[in-house]
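Give me structure tokens for this 56-residue protein.
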Amino acid sequence: MAKQKLKFYDIKAKQGFETDKYETVEKNTARGPMIFAVATSPYTGIKVWRLIGKKK
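Here you go.
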């Protein structure tokens, strides 16, 4: 199954980009376990995070 393309925003480059090359990471937060997508920015090479949602 192919990954869904997600939009990310690189704050340092002030530009958004869309990619399907990301990994999902689960983190425990104050609001409970959340799932994030982490991708590498094509502009600066830094890792950018995007919240996907709460773990079910």
